[in-house]
Amino acid sequence: MAPLDIAKDIFESLRSEFPHLSMEIKEASEDAEIELSIPVQDGLDHEVLLNLQNVDELHFNVDDFWGKWSPCTESKVTVSFHKAVQGFLSGKYRIVVYSRKGKSYKRLLQSPVKGSWHTEYTHVSVHWPCFNPQERYVQNGTTT
């Protein structure tokens, strides 16, 4: 299956899994082959942007987190991407954002596992070692 068709299938699947959320699919934007935007609304506390870029990269952006799953032609990659987005939209997954002096340098997408949290994806910016980082949580539907 072509990457564009894979992305369309995932986006349509998310639409049917979360029918209470308003979602807009746009094809061939300036930055992506296709994108799905989900604005803040009842049932979603943070804007979410998903897209297909650079032929075979699925991107997931929320708040200061940006994840890339590639190549989307591998089923394990698409399953992982879909699960990450489902987890965040449902409120089961969270993002931990670490910052220093107001500048984010590390973000962790985490899933709940046996009363604790498991890191599914890490997004890191270049930074100097940091002591006493500030930590905040981005999660749909709850405050953690």
Please count the helical segments: 2
Which secondary-structure class do the elements indicate?
A: alpha+beta
Strand count, sense and barrel status of the largest sheet are: 5 strands, antiparallel
Q: Ends: how far apart?
A: 39 Å
- The portion of residues assigned to helices is 10-25%
Low-pLDDT segments: none
Q: Kindly provide the radius of gyration, computed on alpha-carbon positions and rounded to a whole number of angstroms.
A: 15 Å
What fraction of the residues are assigned to beta strands by DSSP? 35-45%
Question: pLDDT average, as an integer?
Answer: 93
What is the helix/strand order? HEEEEEHEEEE
| 3D shape | globular
Q: What strand order characterises the main sheet? A: 1-2-3-4-5
Structural domain tally: 2
Tally of strands: 9
Would you give an account of this structure?
- This protein has 144 residues and is of the alpha+beta class.
- It folds into two domains: 3-90; 94-138, no CATH class.
- It contains two helices and nine strands.
- The strands form two sheets. Strands 1-2-3-4-5 form a five-stranded antiparallel beta sheet, with helices on one face.
- α1 runs parallel beside α2 (75-90).
- It is globular, with a radius of gyration of 15 Å.
